[in-house]
Specification:
This protein is of the alpha/beta class. The chain contains 12 helices and 12 strands. The chain has an 8-stranded mixed β-sheet with strand order 6-7-8-3-9-10-12-11, with helices on both faces. Strand 9 and strand 10 form a beta hairpin. It is globular.
Length: 290
């Protein structure tokens, strides 16, 4: 069995503007996600991270490209009909804003059972309690509604809901960005522990490079909708190859006032770079847009 769970090939996506014309969000993005791997997608706002994730999860239709999940073409209508349960149940997503993604009229028990209800399956009470325990909540939360929970508790419920379908792929779209710093650390530890215990793959979108370095096995860097670098995380942080990656890493704040004042961030002007290049392997498994 191949260790490739997700294979993205030549993904492109544009958005139409209200006054006419369009803006390009993704152009010819290709990468693979392996089984049991955490892959980080990083880049500044507007780089195409969330667009890529939503195309992969079937929430946005790409203009071009192929997305293969366990060998199934996500956007091939015939394969999609034949593999409906595979595509819907074994791929789950955790959004950034738990308040807007959880139905306020459903209690926690109904929310975490929702992915199974789509396929007319029931979630046994003990399994629901076990899921809540896995994300650090007790059984008393089952009768509560989202409005009665804190932000961290709601995000834990969102994670439990995603886990109820026993996914092979969990997509996380900046899942800690809306949380307090102390809660962020708890949720990150939760992601790491759950992935280690259950063995699913995670596609993790984030702005915080320190988080990506701590959590992800490999990191993909997006800029202006192009994949500019893909490498094992430690290799990328140790020796970035693309000018944009170097500028991105140089902007990480240093928790030392004296060193921070003396720090000289590297500047990068996208207008000076040729965006029509191709990814080349600079080192084993380290690809850079040249």
């Amino acid at each position: 069995m191949t260790d490739v769970l997700l294979d993205v090939r030549g993904l492109s996506k544009s958005y139409r503007l209200p006054g006419g014309g369009s803006v390009e969000a993704l152009r010819d993005v290709s990468f693979q996600l392996r089984r049991g791997e955490i892959l980080g997608l990083v880049g500044e706002s507007g780089s195409g991270k969330s667009s890529a994730l939503r195309c992969i999860m079937g929430l946005l239709r790409p203009d071009e490209g192929t997305i293969l999940y366990q060998g199934v073409n996500v956007w091939d209508s015939r394969q999609k009909r034949r593999n409906r349960e595979l595509l819907q149940s074994s791929r789950q997503i955790v959004f950034q804003d738990s308040a807007s993604c959880l139905n306020p009229r459903m209690n926690v028990a109904q929310l975490i059972a929702e992915p199974l209800a789509v396929h007319r399956k029931k979630l046994p009470y003990q399994q629901a309690v076990s899921l809540l325990s896995a994300v650090g909540l007790d059984a008393a939360c089952l009768k509560r509604f989202p409005g009665e929970l804190s932000g961290g508790q709601r995000q834990r419920v969102a994670i439990a809901r995603a886990l109820s379908a026993k996914p092979a792929l969990l997509a996380a779209d900046e899942p800690i960005a809306a949380l307090d710093v102390s809660i962020q650390a708890q949720i990150l530890n939760l992601f790491r522990r759950l992935q280690h215990d259950r063995g699913f793959s995670i596609l993790f979108v984030a702005h915080d490079l320190a988080v990506v370095r701590w959590l992800c096995h490999r990191t993909a860097v997006l800029c202006r909708g192009r994949l500019v670098e893909l490498a094992p995380t430690e290799a990328l942080f140790r020796a970035p190859g693309h000018p944009y990656t170097k500028a991105l890493l140089s902007a990480i704040p240093i928790p030392d006032p004296r060193r921070e004042r003396a720090r000289m961030p590297i500047s990068f002007d996208p207008e000076d770079f040729q965006w029509d290049g191709t990814l080349r392997e600079a080192e084993p498994e380290h690809f850079v847009l040249c």
